[in-house]
Amino acid sequence: MAADAYALAGVTETLTEAAAAEGIADYVEFRMDGATRPLDALDDYDGTLPLIVSNRPEWAGGTAGESDRLETLAAAAAFDAVEMVDVELRTIRECEWLRDELREHDVELIVSHYDRQRTPQKSELSTIISECSDYGDVAKLVVAAEEKSDSLALLQSFNAASERGVRVTGYALGDIGRHTRVIGVFYGASIAYAPIVSDERAQDDIDLGTLSNLLEWVASAR
Q: Which helix or strand (DSSP H or E) is residue 161 part of?
C-alpha cells in the first residue's frame, strides 16, 4: 500500500469534539457506547467529516449493554453522515439480521476482532483477517502486544493481507505495541486511529494531532 493511501480517523465519545478534527482527520469515529444519548448526538451532528460509528460491548473493550446495542447501531447507520459502521466479528457472524440491515443503508462495514489478552500467532491472524474480510469491507484487528515479536506479527499480517488486496487496519495495545499506531499504515493498514482529545487514562494512545504529525514526518522521510 502506498504511504498516502491511508485514512486518519479521530476517535471520540462526544461529537461536539469533532470540530477539532477538521483539517486533520478524514473521518470521525463516534464511540456510541460512551455517549449518553448517541442517536440524539447523531441527529444534532452538523460537522463536515464523515462518521464511523461503533457501539462496543464490554467483551470488546466498550461499555454498551446488550439489551439494545445492535438496534442502536443499526439505527445509527441510517444517518446521512455515517459512512462506515464498525461491528465485531463475533457479532456480525451471529446476527444475520444486522448484516442485512446494515447493507441496506449503503454503509461500508469494518468487521473487527479484539483480543485484549494476547496476540495470536501469524497463521491465526491471517485466518481472522480473512473471516473479517468475508463479512465486511475492512478487516480490523486490535491485539495486546507483550513482546516485540507480537507487534511484528501484526505488521506482517497487515502487509500480507494488503498484498492480497484485502483492506485491513488495526493496531497493537500496550507500550510495546504503541508504535504500530504510527507505522501500521506503511505495512498496509488502511486507517490510522487516534483520540481527538487525549485521555490520560489510556497510556498507549497517541492523540490525533500528534499522530498526524508523526505520519507526515515518517512519510516525508521515506
A: helix 148-163
User: 66-98: per-residue pLDDT in tens?
Assistant: 889 999 999 999 999 999 999 999 999 999 899
**Pick from 103, 100, 167: nearest CA to 130:** 167
How many CB atoms sit inside 10 A of residue 41's CB?
A: 18
Q: All domains of the chain, ordered by start, with CATH?
A: 7-221 (3.20.20.70)
For range 125-129, the mean pLDDT: 97
User: With contact defined as beta carbons under 8 Å apart, do 144 and 115 qualify?
Assistant: yes
Do the strands 7-12 and 27-31 form a parallel or antiparallel pair, or are they unpaired?
parallel
Q: In whole angstroms, what is the distance from residue 63 CA to residue 68 CA?
A: 13
Average pLDDT, the chain: 93
pLDDT higher than threshold 70 for residue 217: yes
Provide the 3-class DSSP secondary structure of residue 172: strand
- Residue 2 buriedness (CB in 10 A; 0-12 / 13-18 / 19+): exposed
Diameter of the chain measured on Cα atoms: 49
Q: Quick check: 190 and 167 in contact, CB under 8 A?
A: yes
Q: Write the pLDDT tens digit of every residue in 14-54.
A: 999 999 999 999 999 999 999 999 999 999 999 999 999 99
Only one residue has cell 461491528, namely: 87
> What is the sign, positive or negative, of the torsion defined by CA atoms of 23, 29, 31, 37?
positive
